[in-house]
Amino acid sequence: MKLKLLELTDDKARILFEGQGNTYINALAAELINDPGVDVAQRKQAFRFTDPELVVTTIGGRSPLLAVTDAAKRLSGYAGELLRQMDTLETA
C-alpha cells in the first residue's frame, strides 16, 4: 500500500491511498469515527477509477495522523482476533 500525504495541518489530514480500493478505506473511516478526538473521517474519490482519498479532521488537539495510526492498529487487532477464533473453530 502506498500512501501520499496531500495535506497536513494541526487538525486535518488528507491522505491518498494509491492503488487501493474502497473496502479498507471505508473500514478505516468507520473506525476513525469511533475515536472521540475525530470530528470527520471521510473517503473521497474524484472519479470511479481514481485512487481514493481519506480526509480526517480532529478536535481537542488530537493529531490526525496519530488518529489514523491508532485506527489502523485497532483494525489489525480485530483481524488478528478473527483469525484466532477461526483457528479455534477448525480445531473443534
TrEMBL record:
Q: Where in the cell is it found?
A: Cytoplasm
Tree of life domain: Archaea
| Enzyme Commission code | 2.7.7.6
Q: Which GO terms describe its cellular component?
A: cytoplasm; DNA-directed RNA polymerase complex
Q: Is Nucleotidyltransferase a UniProt keyword of this protein?
A: yes
| A GO biological-process term | DNA-templated transcription
Q: Which UniProt keywords apply?
A: Cytoplasm, DNA-directed RNA polymerase, Nucleotidyltransferase, Transcription, Transferase
Query: What are the recorded GO MF terms, alphabetically?
Result: DNA-directed RNA polymerase activity
Q: Just give the chief location class.
A: cytoplasm
> What reaction does this enzyme carry out catalytically?
RNA(n) + a ribonucleoside 5'-triphosphate = RNA(n+1) + diphosphate
Which Gene3D superfamilies does this chain map to?
A: RNA polymerase, RBP11-like subunit (3.30.1360.10)
* Subunit details: Part of the RNA polymerase complex.
Family indicated by similarity: Belongs to the archaeal Rpo11/eukaryotic RPB11/RPC19 RNA polymerase subunit family.
The UniProt entry, under NCBIfam families, shows: PRK01146.2-3
Q: What is this protein called?
A: DNA-directed RNA polymerase subunit Rpo11
Native source organism of the sequence: Methanoculleus palmolei
Organism lineage reads as: Archaea, Methanobacteriati, Methanobacteriota, Stenosarchaea group, Methanomicrobia
The gene it comes from is rpo11
